[in-house]
Structures are given as C-alpha cells and as structure tokens.
Amino acid sequence: MLTLRLIRRFGAVHRNLAAAAFSSFVGKISDVSSRAGKPSSVDEPALVKLKKERDPEKLFNLFKANATNKAIDWFLNDVPGRFGIVLDAYSFNIVIKGFCEMGILDKAFLVMAGMGTWGLAPDVFTYTSLIEACYKSNWPEIANGLWSRMVLKGCLPNIATFNVRIQFLVNKGRTWDANKLLDFMRRLKKSPEFPDEITYNLVIKGFCKMGNLKMAMYVYSAFRSEGYKPNQKIYQTLIHYFCEAREFDMAYNMCKQSMENNWYPSVGTINNLIEGLVRDGKLEKLDKAKHIYSLSLKRKPPFNPAQIELMKSIVSRK
C-alpha cells in the first residue's frame, strides 16, 4: 500500500497556551457552515486531466495545483481505490488546505472531523491551515478556539502556527501583542530558528506601519543579536518606511547594505531616497545620493535605461 509521509514536526511548547476560548469555540463552530462562502466553480478540464493521470506522484501534484470542490470530493472517494493508497494525515491535510484556500470552511471542518474514521487525528499542519483560514475570514474566536483545542489534544504549535497568529495580530494593528508573542517565542527557543526571519519581519513591519520606527529598530537589533542576518524583505521594509518618515540617513545605511547583496528596493523607493538626500543640500548627503546611484548601476539584472536616466536626473538636481 502506498502512503504519503507526514510533514516534519517541531518540538513541544508549554500546554498553558490553551486559552479559555475553547468553550466558546464549541458553540461557535456549529454555525461555520451557514457563514462559509459558496463553493468555487468547478474547473471541468482540470478534473478530466486529474482523472486521466496514472502516475501517483504526478496526480498529487496536479491535485494541489487544480484543487476544486468537485476534484477534492473525487480525490477522497476514488483515488484510494484506484491506486491502493491508504489516506494518511498528509493526504487529508492536502484536502483541508484546498478547501481552506477556496474559502469553503464548512467542508474543511467536515474533512477534519472525518479523519477519525480512518484512525487518524488532526496534526499541527491540519490545525495551522484551519487557524489561518479562520483569521483570514475574520473569525478570530474560532481560530483561537482551534489553537486551544490543538494544545489540549496534545498537538503543539510549530513556527508556522505562531507566525499565522502574529500575522493576524499585525494585520489588526495589534503589533504590541505580536511583539509579546515574539518575546515568548524567544524565551522558548525551541530551535536555532525559532522564532525565524518571517516572525521578525512581521513584527518589524507592524511597528513600521504604526510609525514607531524606534521599536522597529529595537526588534531589528534583537534580530541581529540572535545571530540572524537581514534578508531582502527586512531591508526593503525598513528602507521604505525610513524614506516615508524622511529619515534618509537611516534609509541610506540600510539601502547601501541591501544593494551590496544585490537586493534592491523598488525604483520608486530608490528615487525617493536619492531625492531626499539631494534636497538636504549638504555635500555629505549629495555624496550619499551619488553612491546609491552608482550602486544602482551594478544591479543584476540591470534597471532599464529609462529608470537609470531618471535616477541620474534626480542626482543632478541642484
């Protein structure tokens, strides 16, 4: 019998993450069906292609790329018999993720509930997919209840689950709460990459969007002290918001470091930075503007001639 291997799992965290919200989750989950969106239209050509495929590996890749309501039902009912496949947790997680991405959460929950008939229990990937979908659907009570249920069942959150929660908090303007969760993750330190670059970038961007660049740099400093090196997203976030705040010296330092790694902000951001430095009028700032322009010439692949010409014209302004 073929089987699909479960994705790698992370270590344990404290059970006291389970919130009292679980009791409200039980009451609220019953009305998910009535509130869920309508099923997406069925892509019949994709379904025909799926049914004709005879290679199991290609079949699963096709399914993930062309998941529709009808295709998912067919996957659960017909694929096991045709290929002699035992549906494992990974198989169910593909289906649940498909329903979540289509916004059909009632079926996603039903598939999770049906895992028990196969002798399976939801894992961290199952819960994370559903928690993320509930947050995106603006059902935070249900998402929080799922988190509590997950922990109470002994299935503990991994880095992806934490990042989903932090993303939700940042999106809701609750960056201080997101930062508290980041601090909690740092204390846990389950692995060298816990929290990871995504976690830090989310919180840094959250503070930048609030206009609190001081806290953004505080989190950035903590990020560096943990031994992480900035990635392209972190550089671009800080450069963009430093330019918006007219903190052009700070933006210059970040932009210089980023460009030296061939990570370039958008043309608009580069132009804003050059213009801000030129407008200052001081020779030192003009030299910085020229340096950013010279680094822009080294980009691979290069900026197009019109973009380069515009940068040059800004540097040349008196």
Query: What average pLDDT do the residues reach?
Result: 80
Main β-sheet, in a few words? none
Number of DSSP strand runs: 0
What is the SS-derived class?
A: mainly alpha
Series of secondary-structure elements, N-terminal to C-terminal = HHHHHHHHHHHHHHHHHH
Q: What does the radius of gyration come to? A: 24 Å
Number of helices: 18
Helical coverage, percent range: 55-70%
Anisotropy-based shape: elongated
Q: Low-confidence runs (pLDDT<50, min 5 residues)?
A: 1-43
Q: Strand-residue fraction? A: under 5%
Q: Give the N-to-C terminal Cα separation.
A: 75 Å
Protein model, in words:
This protein is mainly alpha-helical. The chain has a domain at 7-157. The chain has helices spanning 22-28, 32-35, 44-52, 56-65, 69-83, 89-102, 105-114, 124-136, 140-152, 159-171, 175-188, 197-210, 213-225, 232-244, 248-260, 267-280, 283-296, 305-315. The N and C termini lie far apart (75 Å). Mean pLDDT is 80; it is low at 1-43.
Brief write-up:
Helix content is 67%, strand content 0%.
What characteristics describe this protein?
18 helices, 318 residues, mainly alpha, 0% strand
What layout of secondary structure does this protein have?
Blueprint: H1 22-28, H2 32-35, H3 44-52, H4 56-65, H5 69-83, H6 89-102, H7 105-114, H8 124-136, H9 140-152, H10 159-171, H11 175-188, H12 197-210, H13 213-225, H14 232-244, H15 248-260, H16 267-280, H17 283-296, H18 305-315
